[in-house]
Amino acid sequence: MLRRFREHDLRQVTELDGLWDFAFLGDCDPEVVDVAAIEFADRMAVPGCFDATPAYAGRRGLVAYRTRVLLRDDTPHRLILDGVHHWCRVFVGGKWLRDHAGGFTRFAADVVGHRAGETDVVVLVDNRFDYERCPLHQEYFDWYHYGGIARAAELHRLGKLWMDGLRVVTEDVATRTLRLTIDYGAVEPPGPTDLAVTCDGQVVLQERVDLRAATGLVRRPIELPGAALWSPDAPNLHLLHVRLGEDDVRERIGIRQVRVDGRNILINDQPVRLHGFNRHESHPQFGHGLPDALLVTDVQQLQDLGCNFVRGSHYPQDLRFLDLCDEAGICVWNEAIGWQHGPEHLTDSHFLEAQLAHVDEMVAMALNRPSVIMWGILNESHSHDPRCRPAYEALLGHLRQLDATRPVTYASNHPFDDVCLDLVDVVSINCYPGWYVGNIADIPDELDRIVAHLDATGHADRPVIISEIGAGAIPGWRDGNETRWSEQYQARLLDAVIRHLFLDRERFCGLSVWQFCDCRSSELAGRILGRPRGFNNKGVVDEYRRPKLAYEVVRRYFRKLTTWSTP
Ligand code: ADA
Questions:
Q1: Mapping DSSP to helix (H, G, I), strand (E, B) and coil, where does residue 557 land?
Q2: pLDDT > 80? residue 436
Q3: pLDDT band at 1 (very low <50, low <70, confident <90, very high)
Q4: Which of 280, 311, 380 best tests ligand 1's pocket when mutated (most atoms within 8 Å of CB)?
Q5: What is the three-class DSSP state of 57?
Q6: Closest Cα partner for 492 from 555, 537, 441?
Q7: Range 406-424 average pLDDT
Q8: Which parts of 339-388 fold into alpha helices (H)?
Q9: Residue 503: what pLDDT?
Q10: What does DSSP say about strands 77-81 and 107-111: parallel, antiparallel, or unpaired?
Q11: Which whole number is the average pLDDT over 231-251?
C-alpha cells in the first residue's frame, strides 16, 4: 500500500493497485460460481467501489475481480487486502485461499505450495446484505454500504523467514524507552538469525537471536535518548527499520503515552481538550475508496477548521488517513464497525465472533499509529439493556487485552439509563438537542442536565466527551426563517454547542461534531424519508467538500481553542 513511508526495503512487494478485470455476476450464489468460467467483460479500478461508478450505481450482487501476479519462487507469498466490502472469497491460481467478512480492515491470504510463475488472482466480492455470511454490515445503518476492493491490494514474497507483525509501544517517555515486539513466521525453525534495528538511520540494536521455533515472538526494549516526542502541537515522527534475517519492516512511530486521569485524557502526562469532527470515509464518486487527493483535501480542511480530533465514525479509518493524522497531530478515535445494535445482535454469538475478529484486524493495522489515541466500539447500541452488557464486557475486555496502552470507549445515546459506562475509560455521549429534541435555546440546559446526571451517578471523576451533536443543512439552502435544514440553522446550532461546551464549561474534555462531510445514507424507506437527497446532511462540508455556513462558525471557535487544558 502506498503509505506516507515505504513499509519494506528488502521484502519484494508488488502493488496491485490499478485496473483489474471485472464481471458483475448479480444475484448469484458464490457457492455455485465456477471461477474458471467467469467472463470478465469489464474492468474496474482497485482500490475503488464498483457501485459508485455510473454503470453499477446502486447495484447489489456478486462481482468478480481478476488480475495477474508473478509468484517469484516457490516460497510463501502473501496477498494483502486493506479493505473489501463487504464479503469476499479469494482465489490464487484457481485455488481457494480464504473467505473474509467485513469491510474497512486489512487481512491476508497466504499462497503456499505453488510453483514460480505468473498466475491469476480472482476475488469474488459481495455487497449484498447477508447476516449469515457477514453480520457486520446491516442495511439499516445510517450510511451507504458501497461494495468493492475499496482499499489497496499487494502481493508480498515472504521467503523462508518473515515478520508477521511489529509492535512498538512507548514504555517510558522520560527515558524514551520503547518496547518492540516482532512476530515472525518461517518455513522451518530458522535457528541463529541476525536482528538489526535502526531509528532515523542510527543503529539502535544489533544482535544474533536464536529462533528455535517456526513461529514466535521476539521482544526487545530500545532506548532513544533525546528523541523528540509526539504530541498534537509537535507531531514528531521517527522512522524505524527492523531487519530479521533477509526480511524487513519499516515503521514510522511517534513517542507518546496516552492515559486517563480523573476528568482528563492525558498525552505525555498533559491534559488535552479535544475538538473536532466525526468523519465518514465516503464520497459519491468513490464510495469508501477515497483517492489520495481526497484524503489530503479532508486533512487540509480539518486543519483549516482548527481540529485536533477526529472520531472515525463508524468503522476503522484508512491507514493513509491515519498516516496524515500522525503528521498533522490530529488525535483519532478509531472505531470498530457498528451501529445501533440491539439484543438480537448483541446476544448472538455469531455476531460477537465477527466483531471480535474485526476488532483484532482493526487493532493490528493501526497499532503503531501515534494519532490513534483511543479505541471505540458499537456506536449507539443497546448499552442501556442489561442483556447486552456481556457483549460490551467481551468486546471492551478483548480490546484491553490486545492493547492496554490506549483508553477504550463507546458512543452512548443513553446518557440517562446506560448500564455499561463503568466498563469504559472515557464516557462518550451522542445527543441531538436542538435537532431531534427541543430547540437551540435548550442546548445549554440539556448538556448540563446530561453531565449533572453522569456526575450524580458515579461518573463525576471521569472524562466526558460529546461524541456526536449536530444539525442537518441541505447544501445551498438559505432560508429567511432560518428553519431546520437551512444552513443558517445548522450554523446557529453549532455556535450554541461550541460556546457552551468550551467557553462556558470546563467539564467536557472533548467534542466531535456530527459531522465533517455529508454522506450518502441507507436507502431503506424508514431512513431515507428523514434524509433529504438520500444523504445525511449534517456535514459542515457537503459530500464534495464544499463548505456550508457552519464551516466558518466552527472554524472561528476551533481555531481559538488550544489543545492543552489546565489540569
Ligand atoms: C446517530 C448516529 C449517526 C447518525 C446521526 C444522525 O447519532 O450515530 O451515525 O445517524 O445519529 O444524523 O442522526
A1: helix
A2: yes
A3: low
A4: 380
A5: coil
A6: 441
A7: 98
A8: 343-346, 349-366
A9: 84
A10: antiparallel
A11: 98
Ligand 1 close to Cβ of residue 379 (< 6 A): yes
HEC per residue, 249-316: EEEEECCCCEEEECCEEEECCEEECEEEEEECCCECCCECCCCHHHHHHHHHHHHHCCCCEEEECCCC
Is pLDDT above 70 for 533?
yes
Query: Which ligand 1 atom lies nearest to the CA of residue 435?
Result: 13
Cell numbers placing 154: 499487494
63: pLDDT confidence band, cut at 50, 70 and 90? very high
DSSP secondary structure code for residue 42 in this structure: E
The H helix count followed by the E strand count for the chain is: 9, 32
pTM of the model: 0.97
* Res 260 pLDDT > 70: yes
Statement: residue 567 has pLDDT above 60: no
According to DSSP, the β-strands at 274-279 and 510-513 are parallel
Q: Which three cell numbers stand for residue 359?
A: 476488532
CA distances to 312, 339, 511, 550 from 514, rounded to whole Å, are 11, 15, 9, 12
* Alpha carbon of 142 to ligand 1 centroid (Å): 7
CA angle, residues 31, 33, 35, in degrees to nearest 5: 125
Would you state the torsion angle of the CA atoms of residues 412, 383, 107, 399, taken in this order, to the nearest 10 degrees? 90
Looking at the CA of residue 538, tell me the nearest atom of ligand 1.
Answer: 12
Q: Is pLDDT of 223 > 80?
A: yes
For ligand 1, atom 4, the nearest C-alpha belongs to: 142
Q: Is 537 in the pocket of ligand 1 (CB under 6 A)?
A: no
- The DSSP bridge pattern shows strands 427-430 and 408-412 to be parallel
Report how far Cα 508 is from the mean position of its chain's Cα atoms.
Answer: 24
CA distance 304 to 129: 38
- Residue 223 CA to ligand 1 center (angstroms) comes to 44
Give the pLDDT confidence of 178-220 residue by residue, as tens digits. 999 999 999 999 999 999 999 999 999 999 999 999 999 999 9
